[in-house]
Amino acid sequence: MALALVTGASSGVGRATVLALRARGWEVLAVARRAAHLEDLASDCAAAIHPLDAADPKAVDALLESLRGRTPDLIVNAAGAGRWHRLEDTSPAEARAMMDAPFFAAFLITRAFLPGMLKRGSGQIIHVNSPAAYQPWPHSALYAASRGALRSLHEALRQDLAGSGVMSSHITFGKVSSDYFLSNPGTEERLPKIAKTFRTLSPEDCATLILRLIDRPKAEAIHPPLMAFYLTVWRVWPGLVRWIIRITSPRP
Ligand SMILES: NC(=O)c1ccc[n+]([C@@H]2O[C@H](COP(=O)([O-])OP(=O)(O)OC[C@H]3O[C@@H](n4cnc5c(N)ncnc54)[C@H](OP(=O)(O)O)[C@@H]3O)[C@@H](O)[C@H]2O)c1
Description:
The protein contains 9 helices and 7 strands, in the order βαβαβαβαβαβααβαα. It has helices at about 10-25, 35-45, 55-65, 90-120, 140-160, 180-185, 205-215, 225-235, 240-245, and strands spanning about 5, 25-30, 50, 75, 125-130, 165-175, 220-225.
């Protein structure tokens, strides 16, 4: 049976992805820090669980050892956190935590299993990201920096993995109705108003779109379609989109 490793599995996009993969018959190893949430997930769908801080190199080494040489066929890097602040309102500790997940978590998990995937000559690594990876909005300095770093990590992997049989995929969602905004208070109020023009996705929608990316692998996917259109305009005319986002962003 094919093995998937999903980070951020205790909530939101990661959790929904574990459930969708299990429903499709995948063997899944679900990771996140909150053991109780993972135990609930395991009782819902019989996923294997491994509580860990995915940004802790020693914890990721222990995860690698626990698999005794088995290499996942699929990695979904969905762990992520962080509130939206201006740079001068971001403490050094919070900045480091925001770089920890998603960026360092994706780096460490990918680094642990990529050699096995390359040796086997197959595998897919899916990075879950935010539109801030393309165009940051006001009051999002470290959040955007971490998402931008994740997108660059994917683009660099894309170069390195060409012809290897291993694929790096980057999937970007607009607003998702997960617990993200509860876990990161003060953030939802700072969402640019342009987000009201496109559909809010549920975690289950995101899981369906991730499964579609597994069925039809490609390097980049953006959802929903209207946000993908905005990012197409951004590629052609970044100054216009930057300005629209700035003038439609709440000023707390
Ligand atoms: N919600 C949105 O509107 C939205 C839109 C686009 C993109 N995104 C991005 O998608 C990612 C997931 O968001 P979500 O909406 O699913 O949020 P969520 O419901 O808050 O889930 C985040 C997950 O990340 C895990 N996590 C955070 N830090 C971790 C760490 N150091 N090690 C291991 N796991 C860690 C959390 O679990 P533990 O706390 O148990 O570790 C949780 O399972 C984030 O990067 C977010 O920026 C979100």
